C-alpha cells in the first residue's frame, strides 16, 4: 500500500527490452534507499514495481511487464518519474490509501495558471467515470489529489484539480501540458462502494 505522497522525483535512465517487457534502470534521486532491499515495492508514477537489483549508492532496476506497459504511460522511456516507497507499519497516512495499481489512463485537457497555482483538467475514460466525484480522491501519476469538480461526458468524464506550488515543485506534475497522458488510480473506497451497490441492485432485480 501507498499514500500518494511523493517522496522524490527519480529518473528512468535506461530501458532494456526483454521477452515479456522492459527492464528499467532508475536513479532514485533524493529517495532514501537505506532501508530498501531486493523484493521491496516502489511506486513509479503510481504503478507499484518490485526492486530486482540494487546499484549502490542511488540506483536500482525494476522489470515492467508487457501487461503493465499496456495499462500505464511513462514507464517505457527515459525521463523523470514520481517515486514513493511502500508504506510500513506506523507510517503516517498523509494522502489516502493507494494500491499502486493503475486503473486507467487519462488525458490532460488543460493546465492553466491561476495565480501561482495551476488548474489541471483531465479527461477520464468511461470505465473510471463512475468512481470519480467532486471533493473525492484520485491518484494522478502517483500523486494523491482532491477533485474540485467532475463533469460527465459522452466518453467518460472530465475532472478538475487545483495544484499548489509545493505539489508542482516536488512532483513531475509541474511538467504537464495539454495533450499529455497520465496514470489514474481511483479511490479504493469508491471501488468497494460501487461493488456493494451493484450486488444490491442485482439482488433487488432477482
CATH architecture of the largest domain: Beta Barrel
Question: How large is the radius of gyration?
Answer: 17 Å
Mean pLDDT across the residues is 94
Largest sheet: 7 strands, antiparallel
The structural domain count equals 2
Please characterize this protein's 3D structure.
- With 206 residues, this protein is α+β, with helices and mostly antiparallel strands.
- The chain has 2 domains: 8-85, Elongation Factor Tu (Ef-tu), domain 3; 104-198, Elongation Factor Tu (Ef-tu), domain 3 (Beta Barrel).
- The protein contains 4 helices and 13 strands.
- Strand 4 and strand 5 form a beta hairpin.
- It is globular.
- The mean pLDDT is 94.
Question: Can you tag this structure with a few keywords?
Answer:
206 residues, Elongation Factor Tu (Ef-tu), domain 3, 2 domains, 6-stranded antiparallel barrel, globular
List strands and helices in order, with pairings:
Blueprint: E1 8-18, E2 21-27, E3 41-44, E4 47-55, E5 59-65, H1 66-71, E6 79-85, E7 104-114, E8 117-125, H2 126-129, E9 137-140, E10 143-146, E11 149-153, E12 156-163, H3 165-170, E13 181-186, H4 188-205
Antiparallel strand pairs: 1-2, 1-6, 2-5, 3-4, 3-6, 4-5, 7-8, 7-13, 8-12, 9-10, 9-13, 11-12
Brief write-up:
By secondary structure, the chain is of the alpha+beta class.
